[in-house]
């Protein structure tokens, strides 16, 4: 047997031995027809949809920004009675403190000189005259009708002391008049606090929505020279709002502020009421998507 015949025999034997192995590998690599068809029929993965929140899921339903201006009523915080003819005052008991202490011919230190003349001057009254007031509110709606307002108010006026003056106490004791004996045109009032407000939409008439509320906070009575008189206040609020166009309202409001005013002449505090009358403009900033709010209003029958 020559070399060529021997090589042919070796190749034939190799093919005989490796053929079944190659065929088995080819069958393994090609997936069955049924498996391929099943995989083709499987649908693509479904994308995860974003959850849509309901109206109740929003903690804050919206914000309002209000600017207003108006009138500040002022108030009387000292109201002494007129002295009777036989009333005897102890030394310094009838002294009335002045607002300014610059003129020694008018003041005895901090005391008004006229208050020491009890024969001609009596019945001192101290009050703050009315003046302009301005302020702003930021409302946080916690439901459809209730909102918590953060507010600040500035007002100015004139502080005035008046006394009853009798020119001739002996011959004409009943002929008297109340005169201004001291004043401070630099009076200022600063007020800031919180108010819980309710929009009474069931009581709406001609598109006007009544608003009721109450609040608390602190205020500062500031004078030109006297130390500041501060206090905590309670407040009642009543207003009427009208939506002029979408998310824009105009309205008026009355705020009744009650607080304890520390009166030095008395040595204790008097309860004082300030009233603020104002007109304002309000912008509503919605935090709820339009479709969610529309659905909520539809459920409410609006």
> Beta-strand percentage?
over 45%
What general outline do the C-alpha atoms trace? elongated
- Number of helices, where a helix is a run of at least 4 consecutive DSSP H or I residues: 3
Tally of DSSP β-strands: 12
Mean pLDDT: 85
Low-confidence stretches: none
- Helix/strand order: HHEEEEEEEEEEEEH
Q: Which sheet architecture does the biggest sheet show?
A: 8 strands, antiparallel, barrel
Structural class: alpha+beta
Q: What is the rounded Rg?
A: 43 Å
Helix content: 10-25%
Sheet with the most strands: spatial strand order: 1-6-7-8-9-10-11-12
How far apart the termini lie comes to: 109 Å
Structure, described:
The protein is α+β, with helices and mostly antiparallel strands. The chain has 3 helices and 12 strands. The chain has helices at 3-29, 33-41, 290-299, and strands at residues 62-72, 75-79, 107-108, 111-112, 121-128, 131-141, 146-166, 176-199, 208-222, 229-245, 248-263, 268-286. The strands form 2 sheets. The chain has an 8-stranded antiparallel barrel. A two-stranded antiparallel ribbon has the order 3-4. Strand 9 (208-222) and strand 10 form a beta hairpin. The radius of gyration is 43 Å and the shape is elongated. The N and C termini lie far apart (109 Å). 21% of the residues are buried.
